[in-house]
Amino acid sequence: GENVEQHPSTLSVQEGDSAVIKCTYSDSASNYFPWYKQELGKRPQLIIDIRSNVGEKKDQRIAVTLNKTAKHFSLHITETQPEDSAVYFCAASIIWVYTNAGKSTFGDGTTLTVKP
Amino acid sequence: DTEVTQTPKHLVMGMTNKKSLKCEQHMGHRAMYWYKQKAKKPPELMFVYSYEKLSINESVPSRFSPECPNSSLLNLHLHALQPEDSALYLCASSQRFSGLVNTEAFFGQGTRLTVV
User: Could you give the CA distance from residue B35 to residue B111 in angstroms, rounded to a whole number?
Assistant: First the structure.
């Protein structure tokens, strides 16, 4: 099955600095890579996603890059703010054709702390 | 309406009790999921329903029994649980997987379950 590794497990940055979180995956059939932000006691919420036919995507201060050959993808947050502090999960998703259903495998998460 | 609603928000149950968790969405999504999340861990997939049919069962113990009565509702019936089953149970939904493309999963707020 799919295996997703996420690094680092914790990341502390100063407000205004950039933060980078990296994930690798094992199954070349994975075709969708979402990133979720989860604040303490709350639900995971999608912040950005990328499909396997795209190399880079940006949304204001957040960007994601994908290298299919190397099977890794990264989240970049620029100009970090204290409200960016949360746990961030990457995921790799694959379709199981015989069921027409999909499965997401999550990384272990990165706890980001942005110090004012 | 872009919400996935879960009830109850909190549940304390004894090991001999029978209870049910409920999930509802009105976004027309035809794929619905149950995840289990332990503290400081990623969501762990339990079940996937596609068009109200169980598509994926991730080897979940039979004391957890899912049910999808219609396209908007998803239940998780609980019976004879163990203390180690205490966790946050998250429901999610997404568009039907088509063209071998995954789509964003919307998560509910979760039910925090404590088994005593």
Answer: 11
